[in-house]
Amino acid sequence: MAKQFAELSDQHRAFIERQHIFFTATAAPTGRVNVSPRPTTALKVLSPNTVAYLDRTGSGNETAAHLRQINRMTIMFCAVDGPPQIMRLYGKGQILRHGTAAYAELLESVFSGEEPLGARQIVRLDFDLVQTSCGYGVPLYDYQGERPSLDNWAAAKTPEEMEAYQREKNQVSIDGFPTGMFEEA
């Protein structure tokens, strides 16, 4: 049975800390809905109603494009080992672009100033609803570790090559919506 809460409790935080993956969901008023997996190593709980994750360069940048149009966002965690549970955080997302003062401040204060290769933005979610549900239908999986693929891919690129890739792949969504990635701050 689903339960709703106005903020994260200590038990909710403990659940988040035990997970290895989370999913983000965004949608513009038109076009496609985007759902993306992320590693929880990139996510930090900032307060009972705010989380942020350090987002790295990928083959697209749908989240940024959608949040520019309408800032609705959901983050979902689901237990794939241990007791079953699903948790969703519903709220308003914001992109803190690489190179901006807001990005640098949060990177330093929350992520210990450590920026992985290919970091492109921090996504912040201010939420007003936490919903948990049973998760009985989620299959059990064994966590084997983080994939080195993204680190290896980013390490093989010079800063100039990374920027060229981002300019080619990360400036516009698959529906043609701008991400704002290289706009002046």
Your description of this structure?
This protein has helices spanning 10-18, 62-69, 101-110, 149-155, 159-169; strands spanning 3-5, 21-27, 33-39, 43-47, 50-56, 72-78, 86-97, 119-133. With 185 residues, the chain is an alpha+beta fold. It has one domain: Electron Transport, Fmn-binding Protein, Chain A (Pnp Oxidase, Chain A). Strands 1, 2, 3, 4, 5, 6, 7 and 8 form an eight-stranded antiparallel sheet that branches. A hairpin with a 5-residue loop joins strand 2 (21-27) and strand 3 (33-39). The longest helix is centred in the last third of the chain and has 11 residues, at 159-169.
Topology of helices and strands:
Elements: E1 3-5, H1 10-18, E2 21-27, E3 33-39, E4 43-47, E5 50-56, H2 62-69, E6 72-78, E7 86-97, H3 101-110, E8 119-133, H4 149-155, H5 159-169
Antiparallel strand pairs: 1-8, 2-3, 2-6, 4-5, 5-8, 6-7, 7-8
Give a brief outline of the structure.
The protein has five helices and eight strands, in the order βαββββαββαβαα.
- Silhouette: globular
Give the C-level CATH assignment. Mainly Beta
How many individual domains?
A: 1
Give the terminus-to-terminus CA distance: 45 Å
Q: In which range does the helix fraction lie?
A: 10-25%
Can you tell me the CATH architecture? Answer: Roll
The third-level CATH topology is: Pnp Oxidase, Chain A
Uncertain residue ranges: none
- Overall residue-averaged pLDDT value: 96
- Relevant CATH superfamily: Electron Transport, Fmn-binding Protein, Chain A
Succession of helices and strands: EHEEEEHEEHEHH
Please indicate the percent range of residues in DSSP E strands (runs of 2 or more): 25-35%
Radius of gyration: 17 Å
- How many helices in DSSP terms? 5
Describe the largest sheet.
8 strands, antiparallel
Structural class per helix/strand content?
Answer: alpha+beta
Number of strands: 8
